[in-house]
Every structure is written in structure tokens, then in C-alpha cells.
Design brief:
The structure is a homodimer of 197-residue chains. With 197 residues, chain A is mainly alpha-helical. Chain A folds into two domains: 1-57, Orthogonal Bundle (Arc Repressor Mutant, subunit A), CATH 1.10.10; 60-195, Tetracycline Repressor, domain 2. Helix content of chain A is 73%, strand content 0%. The first copy, chain A, is built from eight helices and no strands. At the A-B interface, α7 and α8 of A face α7 and α8 of B. The structure holds a DNA duplex (30 and 30 nucleotides).
Chain lengths: 197, 197
DNA sequence: TAGGTGAACCTAACATGATTAGGAGAATCC
DNA sequence: GGATTCTCCTAATCATGTTAGGTTCACCTA
């Protein structure tokens, strides 16, 4: 039975329903902010009643969890795409490319960024599965920095905190603007000097 | 009548009640997290029923608002205290003192920090009055940086974003630890180099 | 000092939002 | 074709913020 054509069809329908719910939740998040998403909003958009969502997700936080995983997976994809486009030989430029890829992904969608930092509700904690791509982003950053000779854990800490701080500042103080994009370039230049290349 | 001894007594009682409520809210925030504070929790602690809190605050967000103002006022006081202790002549050291004062205040209390960044609920927006000390902190930073020759707005942006990023990283990745305190020193050293002293 | 006034608290009720219980109808399996 | 399962439904529950309306008591005023 499992693996049968019918089972496949059922599984596909389930998957499609989950995806539809998640997409609806993103829409609401973009319109009203991630923390203001309500099961009624989501249910309305997919043509269901709120309790029916529980046929597809164990709870509201389970929906957040799926979104969280998607958000970080997208970030991972963006970083990989940037790297695949070819990291320049000059370590300064390579660091700029990486930093900018993260910054731009994070800054492009405030709701998504709040979700990625789990700034949603008091009780939301991402599951290990959803958390995996987030760890992968960290690992990828570690790898890329190592490729240009930065291997100390403390250096990765510093780099991440600086880039993260600029993302937050951009979203908090100049949402939709460009004010901190220039500061990002400067910051990465500083880090490059500090790391000695 | 207004300004009479009786009126004073009444006003004092009102003020005391407000303070008691705010203190209770801080207790709850420290125990359960700022976003999990409930009017019932607060009311229980001050020996009231939840609706009675509305005799002293217009809404739950009004309580948050008062807490927000307190938190930033405390930050302002901490920065002033650090400056009054005497900012060193060496601009590098002066910048370190300022940065460390902010970092330590912010990192000392996670609930308070979340509040200061208004990462509470979807609809909380601080009132102008509560926001004033936050602006004063920004102004004070501007003044201090100017005293050591850093006057460009972009430089203040960069400095604030970096320090803020380290605070967030500390609270997110090593709450209660020391991991990012060292990175703060390094970061300020980098900024000093970059600013050219 | 008795009556009026307002402040501060109460209980009851309401609105919203997450969640659970339990059932109906259709798709799927044997 | 009948049993089973899946998916959705309605109804109800619980938590929380908030409003309505009443009671008590301190305090002012005549």
C-alpha cells in the first residue's frame, strides 16, 4: 500500500495542501506582520475553517516551524547561488560577496527575517529539522571564511554579529531603504583589514 | 484643591500603585519572558483582579510602554554614569568605555533588551514620551563620538549597528556567558582603526 | 458631622484566537 | 459492496485582553 499509486496521490494532495497553507500564511505575514498571523486569516485564504488546519499541522507553531525552515533554506540557497556564481580570488571581495548575499536576503523581507530570528511569539521554538538549514548556513559561512584563511571561531562570531547587526539596523531604522548597505561594505572592509588581508 | 496636601497624598498613592504594577510586570517578564506576561500574572502579584489594572493603565500596552521608558532611561543613566566616571583622553579607550557600558547594560537583562527593541507583540508601539530616553541615548552617543572626532552620521550608524549586533549575538548564542564581550573589544578596535585614530 | 463625589476595586460579560471533541461525507481499500 | 480512513465541518472549551456597571470608602464641602 505504501508506495502504491494511490498512496502517492494521497501524499501529493497532503503535500499540496500543506504548501497552500504555508503560502497563505506568508501572504498574511507580509500584509500584517508575522506575529499578527491568525489561523482564521490563513483558513479564510485556503477556503477552510480554522480547525481544519489541524488536519495538516499539529498547531499554529507547526506552521511557523515550516515557514522557519523554508526561510533558512532560502537563505542557504541564496548563499550557495552566490558562491556558485564564483567566489573571487581576492579574499576581500569574496567576503563582500558572501556578506552581501546574506544581507540582501535578510533585508528583502522583514517578516521572513523576524521569523528567522524566532522573534514571533513567546513559545515558538523551531524544531531540529527546521533548524537544520540554519545550521547549514552557519557551516557554509564557516567554510567560505576558511577558504580565505579565516578559521578562528571568534572571527566567525565577529563576522556574523557585525553582519547581523547591520541587517537589524537596516530593518529597524530604514526599512526598504539603502542606508546600511554602504555600512556593510565599510564593515567588511574593516573586517578584512582586521583579519589581515 | 489641586496641589493640596490631600491631592498630593492621592497622587502619591496612584504613583505607588503604578510603580507596584510595573515592578510586578518586570518580575513576570524575568520569569516567563517579556512576551509571555499576562495581566492575570501581574494582577495576582499585586493582589488585584485583572480589570482593576485598568484603573492605573489604559491597556496592557500602556504597561509595556512604561517599562519601555524605564528600560531606556536606565540605559541613559548607565551611559551617563560611565561618562561621568571620566572618559579617557585616548579616543580608542573612550570608545571602548562607551561601547562596553551600552553592551553590559543591554546584555544584563534579556527581557529588558527585548522590550528596548520593541520585540514584544505585533501591536506594541512606544509612545513619544517613552521613546524620549531612547532618542537621548542616541544623542548622547552622537555627542560622545563627536568629542573624539567622529561626526559623520554614517559613522554613528556603523558604530551602533556593530554594538547592537554584538548584543543580539550575545543574547541569542551565549546568554549569560562572555563569548561576545571579547568580540566587542575587537570590534571597537577595528572601528577605531577605521575612523583613523 | 451628614451628604455628595470620585477613586479604586470588584464581578459579570464579551471578543478574539488557539485548540479539542465528535461527527458527516467522500475517497480509498479489500 | 462494505469497511476504513481521510478531510473537512460545527460546536464547544480555554485563555486572555477588555468593557460595563456596581459597590465601597476616603475625602471634600456645607
Amino acid at each position: 500500500m505504501l508506495g502504491s499509486p494511490t498512496h502517492d496521490r494521497v501524499a501529493e494532495r497532503r503535500k499540496a495542501a500543506r504548501r497552500e497553507i504555508i503560502d497563505a500564511a506568508w501572504e498574511v505575514a507580509h500584509q500584517k506582520g508575522i506575529a499578527a498571523v491568525t489561523l482564521k486569516d490563513v483558513a479564510d485564504r485556503v477556503g477552510m475553517r480554522p480547525p481544519s488546519l489541524y488536519s495538516h499541522f499539529a498547531s499554529k507553531n507547526a506552521i511557523y516551524d515550516a515557514m522557519f525552515g523554508q526561510a533558512w533554506q532560502g537563505c542557504l540557497d541564496a548563499l550557495r547561488a552566490a558562491a556558485d556564481r564564483g567566489l573571487p580570488d581576492d579574499p576581500r571581495v569574496a567576503m563582500t560577496v558572501m556578506g552581501r548575499a546574506y544581507f540582501e536576503y535578510a533585508v528583502a523581507d522583514e517578516a521572513r527575517n523576524q521569523l528567522m530570528n524566532a522573534r514571533i511569539s513567546a513559545d515558538f521554538q523551531p524544531s531540529p529539522e527546521a533548524y537544520a538549514p540554519s545550521l547549514a548556513v552557519w557551516e557554509l559561512s564557516r567554510t567560505h571564511l576558511a577558504m580565505i584563511g579565516v578559521t578562528a571561531e571568534a572571527d566567525l562570531d565577529l563576522y556574523s554579529a557585525v553582519v547581523g547587526g547591520l541587517v537589524d539596523a537596516q530593518l529597524a531604522n530604514d526599512p526598504g531603504g539603502e542606508r546600511y548597505a554602504r555600512q556593510l561594505e565599510r564593515a567588511i572592509g574593516m573586517l578584512a583589514d582586521h583579519f589581515g588581508f
